[in-house]
Specification:
Blueprint: E1 4-11, H1 18-34, H2 40-44, E2 49-57, E3 63-70, H3 75-90, E4 103-111
Antiparallel strand pairs: 1-4, 2-3, 2-4
């Protein structure tokens, strides 16, 4: 299952382009599905959970930090989600309308053993 956009898009500057922010948010979710990794041992053990994360993007359009907002209660799932977001952010260009702005985006990843590989 692809990354699910969280309800919160949190600009840290007034006047940020909301349309550009939403476009980036959706693009980030699409890119995340390319890097989705469900650790086989966790899947086999039936471990599941939801991981909520926040990506902070600097004024230069590059990621400056990823933080865990909510744990799945399984270290391997949390790490897989953080890795997925890190790779996704590195491969998703920030729209030009957001350049020069500092902002953050929340993303949620669900892990369920019956998800397709």
């Amino acid at each position: 299952m692809p990354a699910q956009p969280a309800e919160t898009i949190a600009p840290t500057d007034k006047g940020i382009d909301i349309v550009g922010l939403r476009q980036y948010h959706l693009a980030l979710g699409r890119t995340a599905s390319r890097f989705r990794y469900y650790p086989p041992a966790a899947r086999k053990a039936g471990r599941q959970g939801r991981v909520a994360m926040r990506l902070a993007v600097g004024e230069n359009g590059l990621p400056i930090g990823i933080s865990l907002l909510g744990s799945s209660q399984h270290l391997e799932l949390d790490q897989a989600a953080l890795d997925m977001l890190r790779l996704s952010a590195a491969h998703t260009p920030v729209p030009e309308s957001l350049r020069g702005q500092h902002f953050s985006i929340d993303l949620v990843i669900d892990f369920k053993p019956d998800d397709p590989p």
